[in-house]
Write a structure and sequence with these properties.
- The chain is mainly β and 548 residues long.
- The chain folds into four domains: 113 residues, Immunoglobulin-like (Sandwich), CATH 2.60.40; 82 residues, Immunoglobulin-like (Sandwich), CATH 2.60.40.4120; 72 residues, Immunoglobulin-like (Sandwich); 212 residues, Jelly Rolls, CATH 2.60.120.
- It is 4% helix and 42% strand.
- It has two helices and 43 strands.
- Strands 28, 33, 34, 35, 37, 38, 39, 41 and 42 form a nine-stranded antiparallel beta sheet that branches.
- A hairpin with a 3-residue loop joins β8 and β9.
- The protein is flat, with a radius of gyration of 31 Å.
Length: 548
């Protein structure tokens, strides 16, 4: 009886142990795509930057490709994840060979086995599931641009209808008096990499419509196109143009007869003297032209006109944008609340932020005012040991708050002007990198190397939210589509006396007005990963925006 009771109790204990739940959660590690490239990649129409547009908040990627590739079997040439050890899941139906598609990221095809197959059908958006301890779906959209160019001598304008496959070309009768002798320069109806028959440059008689057959690159299906040429009494220009004014420059875009190069002139309103835009600053493509006016003054109204074949168009006007000075760029104004120092005047709307609110009560301020300056006061950014992690000295346009033991930052302050560079004075004494944060992947190899400072400036359409929690890291991406202009400086060189530095801004769009300015400086470049050398110091003084 006792033996039976013992077996019964053991059985109950065994059952109870099976019912115990493991309540210890897996760590939260957000996975994202940090870089992706495909064959045939190009910029969107009207843009110059071919880099993929990655929205980490939405989990989306948008790319553009030319017509030299088959979008149904598009080869991915680079796919880098954050963290690097995350795995890739993809629908087998969209893979050229699902069994050969890599499950880990790759910086280039050279890092994959020769048997690997990264071709994917991107005719529709593709979902990739990135996995750490959790799954994160990402949608990748590839847009193929079929670039069909029409360029005919004497052309004033044209209409190309892809649906009906009709092309209507208008020419200037003074330049093309005889429609039986039309000179076609370019008519790539099959796309930039496609083919057309007969050769359009050998067809001249357009007293009636002509028929051409075009096929896309890599395809044997020929489509019929009809091309019509008509004379129009419109002059060499449509008489219309658009202008986008910055502070010291403006871009004029308009229409021009094919084969003609316009002369663009401008002057300050009220002046009698015209300035001619240098020929090097005027470009033409088919029936369009772009002229860049430089050396302008801010907050000034200008008149301009476009002249073709000695005939001047009507005068039009624009007003340049006012230059805006950088608030407290001299680093003279500081205030204190308890133990925390702020690089802003007391009672003023804060413009600059630092990580001081998260560090002052534990290890002291990371960024402070110093009399060791070019003039008056300067900012001293110092990397410190925060016991359980590293604290990098930093300053940025935005605000800081604590998110647990980590930082939640917002980059960006209201701004709507067009500087050409950021000028400042700096000193830097780097230490050896002796602290490495968690979940940093390949960056762990930086230990023992010389620390680096970093300063960057960006003009953007939006404010950026930054999380430096290793389990939920979301950092600033300079390639984000919201960035209008960007420039950066990184150095591990020791500079013991103040040195002037100018960081030029590279504008990626010349037709968008910024809404925010982002300036970030750190005594340890990888401070967001809690990587750096304790004792690294960066001094900043006399920061100003340059308009040239």
């Amino acid at each position: 009886m006792i033996k039976k009771l013992t077996y019964f109790l053991l059985g109950c204990l065994g059952f109870a142990s099976c019912a115990i739940e493991n309540d210890i959660p897996y760590p939260l590690r957000v996975a994202s795509i940090s870089s992706i490239e495909v064959e045939g990649q190009r910029a969107a129409e009207g843009a110059t930057d071919a880099t993929a547009v990655i929205d980490k908040a939405a989990g989306t990627v948008t790319l553009y490709v030319n017509d030299s590739v088959d979008i149904t079997r598009l080869k991915i040439t680079r796919l880098v994840l954050d963290p690097r050890e995350a795995t890739i899941g993809i629908d087998s139906a969209v893979c050229d060979n699902y069994g050969k598609f890599p499950t880990n990221d790759f910086a280039s095809l050279d890092s994959l086995p020769l048997s690997a197959n990264t071709r994917v059908d991107f005719s529709e958006p593709v979902t990739m599931t990135l996995s750490t301890y959790q799954d994160y779906p990402w949608k990748v959209t590839v847009n193929q641009i079929i670039q069909r160019d029409v360029d005919v001598y004497g052309m004033v304008n044209h209409v190309l209808d892809v649906n009906s496959r009709n092309v209507i070309i208008y020419v200037n009768p003074k330049e093309v008096p005889d429609l039986s002798n039309v000179q076609i320069k370019k008519l790539n109806l099959g796309g930039e990499y496609g083919k057309v028959t007969p050769d359009p440059t050998t067809v001249h008689d357009f007293t009636k419509s002509q028929t051409f057959y075009a096929a896309r690159h890599g395809e044997d299906t020929w489509q019929e196109w009809k091309v019509f040429v008509y004379q129009t009494e419109e002059g060499g220009s449509t008489g219309s143009s658009d202008v986008f004014a910055m502070v010291t420059r403006a871009t004029v875009k308009g229409s021009v007869q094919s084969g003609k190069t316009p002369t663009v002139e401008y002057r300050k309103q009220g002046s009698s003297d015209w300035n001619t835009v240098p020929a090097a600053n005027v470009t033409t493509s088919g029936t369009s032209f772009t002229a860049t006016l430089t050396g302008l003054s801010g907050s000034t109204t200008y008149n301009y006109r476009v002249t073709i074949d000695g005939v001047a168009g009507s005068e039009q006007s624009f007003t340049t944008v006012a230059p805006v000075a950088l608030e407290n760029g001299s680093m003279e104004n500081w205030s204190q609340d308890g133990k925390i120092w702020y690089p802003n005047a007391a009672g003023a709307n804060p413009f600059w932020g630092t990580g001081n609110p998260g560090a002052a009560n534990f290890i002291g301020n990371l960024t402070t005012a110093t009399d060791e300056s070019v003039k008056g006061k300067a900012a001293l950014l110092e990397t410190k040991d925060a016991i359980i992690k590293l604290g990098a000295g930093n300053i940025f346009t935005g605000d800081f708050e604590l998110e647990g033991l980590n930082g939640l930052l917002h980059f960006g302050r209201s701004f709507s002007s067009f500087p050409t560079s950021l000028r400042l004075y700096y000193k830097y004494t780097p230490a050896t990198i002796d602290m490495i944060g968690d979940n940093v992947g390949d960056l762990a190899s930086l230990k023992g190397q010389t620390d680096m400072c970093q300063i960057y400036i960006a003009l953007s359409d939006k404010i950026y939210e930054i999380h430096n929690d290793p389990k939920n890291r979301q950092l600033f991406d300079p390639n984000d589509s919201g960035i209008i202009a960007y420039g950066e400086f990184t150095s591990s060189q020791s500079v013991t006396s103040y040195k002037q530095l100018e960081i030029p801004l590279e504008y990626r769009a010349t037709n968008r007005t910024p809404k925010y300015i982002i300036i970030v400086a750190s005594s340890s470049k990888y401070g967001d990963y809690y990587i750096g050398g304790v004792g690294s110091k960066l001094w900043l003084d006399e920061m100003e925006l340059v308009y040239e």
